[in-house]
From TrEMBL:
It comes from Apilactobacillus waqarii. Pfam families: HD (PF01966), HD_assoc_2 (PF19276). This is HD domain-containing protein. Residues 61-186 form the HD domain. CDD domains: HDc.
Amino acid sequence: MEYQEKLLPREKVFRDPVLNYIYVQHQVILDLINTKEFQRLRRIKQLGPASYTFHGAEHSRFTHSLGVYEITRRICDGFLRNYPSKVAGDGLWDDSQRLVALCAALLHDIGHGAYSHTFEHIFGTNHEAITQEIITSEKTEVNQVLSKISPSFPKEVASVIDHTYPNQQVVQMISSQCDADRMDYLLRDAYNTGANYGNFDLTRILRVMRPYEGGICFEINGMHAVEDYIISRLQMYMQVYFHPVSRSMEVILSHLLQRAKELAGQLDKNDSLTPHLLMPFFKNDFTIDDYLKLDDGVLNTYFINWIDSDDKILSDLADRFINRKPLKSVEYNNETESLIPTMQKWIQEAGFETTYYTAVNNSFDLPYDAYDPNKKHHATQIELRRNDGTMIELSKISQLVSAVTGKHLGDERFFFPKEMLSQDSDIDLFEPVYQEFQKHIKNDELIK
């Protein structure tokens, strides 16, 4: 579908620490940025509790969404300049697709909730489904802005998010193994956490990216830039996204919300500790309006209030989260996993309810996932275009990428209260329990 939309009299720019300038040329993009649903993203951190580990990671879903828009805009510009479609069906870039691509890029994360992934786990929400609902619901400002383009335009944009949009070039710009979303969050997260190994050559990747009839591919002479991106992504997952302290704070947050959910009947007393904006989620009966009222600050306000709760577990978990008192953790494997129930028994004997003060947490990621016909779901693989126009999949030609293809990298960790590692010789009756517990921990690992 071709959409025409008016340009701004003069393009607007946002100064950005990662991409320098973000250019807005279409009125609809500026109008979307100014909707209340998009502005809410300013109040949701991109990396959730990771700022407890990397203190610079205060950036928001708002800044990331603008970044994904800008990278998508640059891809469209490059495609129009170098690969414009001459004849329908020639596999080159049809610039009438630009507007739907830009809107989908800008709005791809609009359904993320407060502390998004942890919140989703506890309350069973789905940010992608909610993203589509925000785009298609006539009640939202976002929908009203999109509908000015065409009555069918919101559904077109939503179909890009759920990968059903017919033009795969547009879909893969925003969702593939080398897309505007991943490229922005890697660079942005690397910048804000200080993790320089997350950097890669964005300019070069955009230069060698090109459209073809199956979607998006890369010129083979740009293979090393794509390799660098894959390895940067691997490093960011291992060093930042899977950091044990960040995961520990996520465990505390998860258990805190779980405890509050279980106490919902007691919390619904219409006093200062009542989390009115959370009650619809505790009762599993919420609307899109309820969802959009929540952000990180709302939850933090409730957590601060809960520090004064009569419920000792709720109070303590809230204190641990707000005031950064992470759990400790150790790696375990198939041989030592059987020790965990014994470790939990000692933790229980030391006075900690294991449901809330212990956890096993697995964090694994595929740095690169090549096509496997036996898989039900598989990622879009990265195709390289050879000089004769034929394609070859990245891991078939790159030894570096081949080495990490299909390999789950990460670890399994057992989380427990820091108090279990106490070395205080004056400790009271729990000292023997602590000593037994500590015998099974060495070099950050669980041992027999």
